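lol forgot to send this yesterday, sorry. struct tokens for the thing we talked abt
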């Protein structure tokens, strides 16, 4: 090595690199971001509570009566939420209807039993069932066309659409047919009296 190269190497080694990070400013930005995220979460929670308060006039959900007859159909899958009938984005959160969960559906001659582990179970009497259809979305959950079983039922003065997705989506058509046939039978029997 030449003396000039040695001198340049020595000068380079003596130079101290500048601080890359200003830790105080970085910590302040991280704390600010965390506070912003917490504030947005708090606002979302307040909106959920406010929506529940607006829907407080909705009656309590009926529980399944004891000794239900043998089931017509049963499925396991996911409960995706309930909305005001015909308003697929107007989520109903009162009485736990807004909580997504696993579901076990059982259709009997008495009605539709909805068992949701970790959420409120409920029962829809046969007289309250208004129909079923295949759809693609409910309450912010969008699937492929016909990928969602939507059951329409009356609860108090409110018509409700509840969305379910079976673990085996091919079962949906049988459910639509059974519920719609059940609704027609109930309506016909009621009119004959």
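and heres what i got for the seq, position by position
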């Amino acid at each position: 090595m030449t003396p000039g190269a040695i001198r340049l190497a020595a000068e380079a080694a003596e130079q101290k690199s500048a601080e890359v990070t200003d830790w105080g400013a970085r910590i302040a930005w991280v704390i600010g971001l965390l506070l912003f995220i917490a504030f947005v979460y708090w606002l979302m929670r307040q909106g959920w509570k406010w929506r529940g308060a607006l829907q407080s006039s909705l009656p309590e959900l009926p529980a399944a009566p004891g000794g239900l007859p043998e089931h017509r159909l049963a499925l396991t899958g996911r409960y995706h939420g309930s909305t005001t009938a015909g308003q697929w984005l107007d989520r109903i959160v009162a009485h736990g209807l807004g909580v997504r969960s696993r579901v076990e559906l059982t259709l009997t001659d008495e009605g539709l039993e909805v068992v949701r582990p970790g959420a409120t179970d409920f029962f829809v009497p046969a007289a309250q069932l208004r129909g079923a259809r295949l759809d693609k979305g409910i309450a912010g959950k969008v699937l492929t066309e016909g990928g969602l079983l939507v059951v329409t039922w009356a609860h108090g003065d409110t018509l409700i659409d509840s969305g379910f997705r079976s673990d085996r989506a091919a079962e949906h058509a049988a459910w639509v047919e059974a519920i719609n046939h059940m609704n027609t039978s109930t309506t016909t029997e009621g009119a004959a009296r």
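The chain has three helices and nine strands. anyway ping me if u want another try
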